[in-house]
Specification:
Elements lengths: L8 H16 L14 H9 L5 E2 L6 E2 L17 E8 L1 H18 L15 H10 L6 H16 L11 H26 L5 H107 L4 E8 L5 H17 L1
Antiparallel strand pairs: 1-2, 3-4
Length: 337
């Protein structure tokens, strides 16, 4: 076996020429050329009568019998020419392959991702639970109402009396009695005991005693009344404040609920956006092969237009019986001469 790697370029060319001549000479039915063809060209040769069989000596595919092979001379009579103009085989083959790819994609169903809705967040659920709790501030309001009603009913003044009022009265009586005793002693010393002047003085002392006791009791009552009124005012103010506190508690809860729902709503929107982004990504992944095919289509559309022409000539074949008849008639005419 010859090692062609040791041959020079000139030697390889000489060897190729000899091999080409020898191998091409093995063709039958007028096939004298070796060539590279694509599958489209092979189909054309088959379509126009090429055999497409295998040469027994070379093992190469041969297409005699079509397109004017057979080594005949000029164009026979009654021939028919058909010319086909189409795109270059290479471009047409690629377009057919692109169509096959698109048809294969179209036959496969697309798994569309489901549309999802973000669930309520933890903050929103807390807001829902808080909104379901009614009567916030109700106990405080009820306590305020009770305080107001109690204050309006009026306090018991007796409970505000000075517990030492009786001692004050006893002291007034004691001092008045001392004054009476002193008045009697003075009257005896003057020899006027039991007289009119003594009676007037004793009456004046008694009047003064009673007036002092009355004044003391009135002062105690005034102080007790003032204390009771102060307590009533405090009770009314406390009731009003408790009512305000109850309403404030309710408003504060409503504010907390709004804050929870608002913050939770923002979280839910972010979650919904994440779900939408995930779905869009899945859709893009599902349609990516179609976009790639569309991209290839754009390239094919913008390629320069090129055409190839194929001219096929067909002629009616000659039957062996006619050939034999023609040969016999020729021999007969030669014999007559």
């Amino acid at each position: 076996m010859i090692d062609i790697t040791t041959l020079t370029l000139k030697q390889k060319i000489e060897l190729f020429k000899k091999l080409y001549k020898e191998i091409s000479g093995k063709g039958i039915n007028g096939d004298t050329e070796l060539a590279h063809i694509n599958t489209f060209e092979a189909r054309i040769l088959k379509m126009y009568g090429g055999a497409g069989s295998i040469n027994e000596e070379t093992g190469l595919r041969q297409y005699f019998g079509g397109g004017g092979s057979g080594g005949g001379g000029g164009q026979p009579a009654n021939t028919t020419q058909m010319q086909t103009v189409r795109e270059a085989p290479e471009i047409e083959a690629r377009k057919i392959a692109l169509y096959d790819q698109a048809a294969s994609l179209a036959s496969q169903p697309i798994a569309l991702p489901a549309i999802q809705v973000a669930a309520p967040t933890t903050l929103q659920q807390q807001g829902f639970q808080s909104a379901g709790t009614t009567g916030v501030g109700g106990q405080t309001t009820q306590a305020g109402i009770g305080s107001i009603l109690q204050a309006q009913a009026g306090p018991n003044i007796s409970q505000f009396y000075n517990p030492y009022q009786s001692y004050v009265t006893d002291e007034i009586n004691r001092q008045a009695q001392q004054a009476q005793n002193q008045l009697s002693a003075t009257a005896i010393g003057a020899g006027a005991f039991g007289g009119g002047r003594q009676g007037v003085a004793q009456a004046e002392l008694e009047r003064a005693r009673l007036a002092t006791i009355g004044q003391s009791q009135a002062q105690g009552f005034g102080q007790a009344l003032q204390a009771a009124q102060n307590q009533q005012s405090i009770g009314l103010q406390a009731g009003q404040q408790l009512g305000a506190f109850g309403a404030q508690q309710q408003a504060m809860q409503q504010g907390d609920i709004q804050s929870l729902l608002q913050a939770g709503g923002i979280q839910q929107q972010l979650g919904q956006q994440a779900l939408e982004a995930q779905r869009q990504t899945q859709l893009q992944q599902a349609y990516e092969p179609y976009q790639r095919t569309e991209f290839l289509k754009g390239i094919m559309t913008n390629l320069p237009t090129s055409q190839s022409g194929i001219t096929a000539t067909t002629a009616p074949g000659t039957s062996p019986l006619a050939q034999a008849a023609g040969a016999g008639l020729g021999a007969y005419m030669a014999f007559r001469k």
